Amino acid sequence: MKKKRIIMIAAIILALILLFPIPIRYGDGGSIEYRSIAHIYSITKLHQLRPATEGGYDNGIEIRVFGITVFRHTKSATPLSIETGKKENETEPPRVRELITFNEDTWDGTTTLTIPEFAGVTFEYTSEKLTANGEDLIWGMPIFNVYLADLNGDGMPEICTTASYGSGICNNAVTAYDYHNKQAYYLSDRMIYDYMLSIENGELVVKQTLSYMQQADGDRGIGTGKLAIIDDELVAVGIDRMKPTETMPE
Q1: What ranges do the domains of the chain cover?
Q2: pLDDT value at residue 9
Q3: Mean pLDDT score across all residues of the chain
């Protein structure tokens, strides 16, 4: 009985020795293989340089049993630029992005929007409202368009829309919602001017036109300006918002 116990202990010790992993480092960029003495198995933590034309590394793990690969998973990683701290192949998103343009054919539809800067938030657009995780942000009937643009220079985009408001007498106005700070801004001059957003030369601009209530003044008051948040107010830089006179000048 004692002899059997000694044999079992010896066998366990031998198995542990044979299965003990020995680290082996490779010159492929920094991969490390942990291989058993008896070459029964090996686990390799991969960190392999990619071709010079592609740059970066392939990171992952590889498991072999008796020399046969039973599992391997890798993913590519691009090195960071020392000067910018950004990935060498990474490009910044455009300063202004168009997310939605109203289409009468989809009046009753719902569109889900994904905004990378607000991870984990589900934005949904219908013709009458824009929501974030079910919370109402902007109303309109309809909401004509939805843009993203950093209007206050804090590095986070505001959600900008043109929408029609009112019943009977309607006007078009602009809303900018700072979702990062949960604050809404409005550009509206009801019954005087209408405002409509568009992209021109990579900038988000506002086109100002007279309300149909002011059409007696002809083309007066039409202008175009860059949308911005200045001193906690939504403005169209370069646009004159003074109310037109009641009568046309001689």
Answers
A1: 2-77, 96-237
A2: 78
A3: 80
The Cα 169–Cα 72 span in angstroms is: 66
State how far the Cα of 213 lies from the Cα of 46, in Å rounded to an integer. 70
With 60 as the cut, is the pLDDT of residue 91 above it? no
Residue pair 151/229 in contact by the 8 Å Cβ criterion = yes
Check residue 123 and give left, alpha or beta (phi > 0: left; psi -120 to 50: alpha).
beta
How far lies 190's CA from each of 104, 125, 212, 233, 243, in Å?
24, 24, 11, 17, 11
118 phi and psi angles, rounded to 5 deg: -120, 70
Contact 95, 150 (CB under 8 A): yes
Rounded mean pLDDT, 65-87: 63
Of residues 72, 71, 82, the one with CA closest to residue 48: 72
**Mean pLDDT on 185-195:** 92
Cα angle vertex 247, ends 241, 250, to 5°?
110
